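Appendix B. One record, verbatim.
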Amino acid sequence: MFNSHDYTKYIDMAVNYVSEYSFKVFGALAIFIIGRWAAHKITAVSKKLMIKSKLDKTLVEFSESIVYFILLLAVIMAALNTLGVATTSIVAVFGAVGLAVGLALKDSLSNIGAAVLIMMFRPFKIGDVIDAGGAHGTVEDINLFSTTISPVDNRTIIVPNSRIIAANITNFSKKEQRRIDHIIGIGYDADLKLAKSVLLEILGNNERILKEPAPFVGVSELGESSVNFTVRAWVKTDDFGEVNFALLEEIKLTFDEKGITIPYPQMDIHINND
């Protein structure tokens, strides 16, 4: 049976326990609430600074998440430390779990690392036409694991970021101007000077072909069955596709009108009757 002395003893113990740990609990709650508020504010300020620096939108959102996660983790550790929890053991557990997860998801983590490189160095952005990772088309989306590319036939190709970073990246939209290059062959019996003047006239009359740098036409090869011209013209990047195809069509039609032959591949065979 408990006597009055025992009741007083346990009540005193409870009061001491509550008084001792209530301050720790309130302190931990205060650290967590104020710390989380501060983490939000610091993250918002860092986001504004990144936006002012004209960083890529995807990089801004990714960096914002990382900054907030790190700050919130620090706040939680501080709150647990105030409660008297041994945070060193928790850090060790998180480290072991992180190592195991890292080994299990090494391919995914390599894609995340590649995404960070893409966002930092910006070899391309959404809307650019690129050739990367075995795919050619317009970039539709860039996330932490993959890049979505849409070819001209409106397919959707999802390429892992690590595969893109591991090989060459050709960006067709990076520059404001692109050069059209064609090899045009004429027959050996055709009028070379006429063909050259016709090619220059075609280039000069096309309004979408830039005057500077000036178009170029020159004999580049005396081939096996044709005299080959190198035809070069500069256009705005957005006009490249249409002008590239239209130019070939116009050259063929004009050559037909002028009687300038474009020979088929052929071989002359000489038979010795002896």
